[in-house]
Q: What sequence folds into this?
């Protein structure tokens, strides 16, 4: 009996590291959804596919061009950021003044296009990411053994998160981002180049998605062109649960989702098949109790 | 000097402005009065590039503004204090003022302008760390004007600055408008409060359903029977 208790504690700790890393990945992607929504009131359905692209570009950098992993990662993150900016230019900017539904349909179309181009260009067969020793080492802490990547992911995420909060809250560009997300027309009247701010936002969101995609492939090294769909959906949920438009909310939602998913799989193995369903149930519950999300503010208009 | 000639604007099927012409000479206060829906806001928005005119011209010191981006128009010295204030509610008072100076690179002068705004509106300085959304309506209007001053305008346009404010605040806002004008800034004022606007203005235009029907010096219009009947609520 005692022995079993110790086992359970170590299992719990082990799962906790898994939850922290999955939660971090969800957070990174959810931030992109929430930032774009904050500025354009658009759910960027192609965001999960941007995540997939980041992983593939890094894969080709390492596997085909034989670049050192860190160079490949930086290049992949940079290129994916540029891709995000391009996506906005091509698929969203021309529709800026159209009804919001057109923008949303364009987002869905962009998502399908990227996925299917992925199948054509990358091939439908899954690829496995080459092992990178730094991330692939098993570390033992007493009876708890952890894959090193599971510690790197939360650490990276925290650094990125603080950098992002610094940019948004303390820099001039961040101030412009907040202004545009509050009132685009008033921001124009302040001589803010709204297009530049929107491009910047897409760039940052896509960078984070790429980083998420790469880290994801360190942990789950199977790549396929449709790999972005489910994480994309989950992270959209995470952003909504946290309060869409709110960066801290996206992180909270991401961690919450990661935690629930891992713990359900670990401690209620009979329900493992339903682990995705738990995310949706959580979404429904949050929407019933607090429709604006956990950290979202109620929209009030002052006259 | 701002000159508008035969300006027409269509919104969908609505002909909002039907070829209006007006002038705003340098250093003056000019007001545009008229009822709701007459096209006053549309006029200001087409000057600042938020609305595209279907025909006609807007020239600012000899340069055409039609088709120019709002950002460039603001940088050329025209600013609009929009109807309903439109301050950035979840940003601090200080940040709102900094956003006014967003495109400026003259740091020392910007800080001097910030001090000037705080001198005009001491209440804003007391609340500079507060979120703009927590201010009262009058304070938000002060912030909107302060934010506009931070763009270093040569022409300050205001859309219904007195809307929804207590009479004492309205008086204060109009005093400030005159003070800003005395400092050399040209003012184009759109108002439903025709009396206060005409009293403050050197020159006025009356806009009715997209057309200018009357114009003249402020005092002259105040004395005009048609204006008194239609806009000052006086019986015959």
A:
């Amino acid at each position: 009996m005692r022995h079993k208790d110790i086992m359970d504690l170590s299992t719990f700790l082990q799962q906790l590291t898994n939850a922290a890393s999955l939660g971090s990945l969800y957070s990174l992607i959810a931030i992109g959804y929430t930032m774009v929504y904050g500025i354009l009131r658009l759910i960027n359905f192609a965001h999960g596919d941007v995540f997939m692209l980041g992983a593939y570009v890094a894969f080709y950098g390492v596997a085909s061009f034989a670049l050192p992993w860190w160079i490949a990662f930086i290049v992949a993150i940079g290129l994916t950021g540029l891709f995000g900016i391009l996506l906005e230019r091509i698929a969203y900017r021309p529709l800026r003044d159209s009804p919001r539904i057109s923008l949303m349909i364009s987002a869905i179309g962009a998502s399908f296009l990227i996925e299917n181009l992925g199948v054509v260009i990358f091939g439908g067969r899954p690829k496995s990411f080459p092992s990178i020793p730094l991330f692939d080492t098993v570390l033992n802490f007493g009876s708890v053994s952890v894959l090193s990547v599971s510690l790197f992911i939360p650490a990276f995420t925290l650094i990125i998160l603080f950098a992002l909060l610094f940019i948004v809250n303390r820099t001039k560009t961040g101030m412009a981002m907040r202004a545009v997300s509050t009132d685009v027309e008033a921001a124009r009247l302040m001589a803010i180049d709204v297009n530049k701010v929107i491009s910047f936002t897409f760039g940052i969101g896509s960078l984070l998605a790429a980083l998420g995609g790469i880290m994801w492939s360190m942990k789950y090294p199977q790549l396929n062109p449709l790999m972005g769909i489910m994480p994309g959906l989950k992270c959209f949920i995470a952003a909504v649960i946290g309060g869409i438009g709110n960066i801290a909310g996206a992180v909270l939602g991401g961690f919450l989702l990661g935690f629930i998913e891992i713990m359900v799989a670990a401690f209620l193995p009979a329900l493992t098949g339903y682990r995705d369903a738990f995310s949706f149930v959580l979404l429904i519950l949050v929407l019933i109790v607090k429709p604006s999300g956990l950290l979202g503010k109620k929209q009030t208009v002052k006259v | 000097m701002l000159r508008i000639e035969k300006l027409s604007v269509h919104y969908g099927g609505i002909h909002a402005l039907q070829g209006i012409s007006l002038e705003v000479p340098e250093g003056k206060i000019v007001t545009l009065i008229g009822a709701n829906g007459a096209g006053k806001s549309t006029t200001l928005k087409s000057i600042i590039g938020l609305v595209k005119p279907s025909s006609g011209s807007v020239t600012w010191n000899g340069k055409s503004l039609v088709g120019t981006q709002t950002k460039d128009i603001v940088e050329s010295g025209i600013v609009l204090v929009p109807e309903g204030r439109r301050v950035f509610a979840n940003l601090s008072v200080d940040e709102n003022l900094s956003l006014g100076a967003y495109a400026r690179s003259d740091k020392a002068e910007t800080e001097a302008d910030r001090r000037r705004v705080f001198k005009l509106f001491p209440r804003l300085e007391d609340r500079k760390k507060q979120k703009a959304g927590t201010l009262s309506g009058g304070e938000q209007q002060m912030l909107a004007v302060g934010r506009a001053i931070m763009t270093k305008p040569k022409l300050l346009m205001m859309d219904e600055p007195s809307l929804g404010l207590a009479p004492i605040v309205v008086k204060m806002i109009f005093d400030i408008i005159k003070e800003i004008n005395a400092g050399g800034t040209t003012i184009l004022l759109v108002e439903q409060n025709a009396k206060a606007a005409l009293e403050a203005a050197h020159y006025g235009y009356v806009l009715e359903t997209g057309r200018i029907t009357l114009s003249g010096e402020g005092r002259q219009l105040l004395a005009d029977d048609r204006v008194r009947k239609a806009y000052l609520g006086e019986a015959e």
Notes: The interface with chain B takes residues 172, 175-176, 178-179, 182-183, 185-194, 302-303 of chain A (CB under 8 Å). The longest strand of chain A covers residues 138-141.
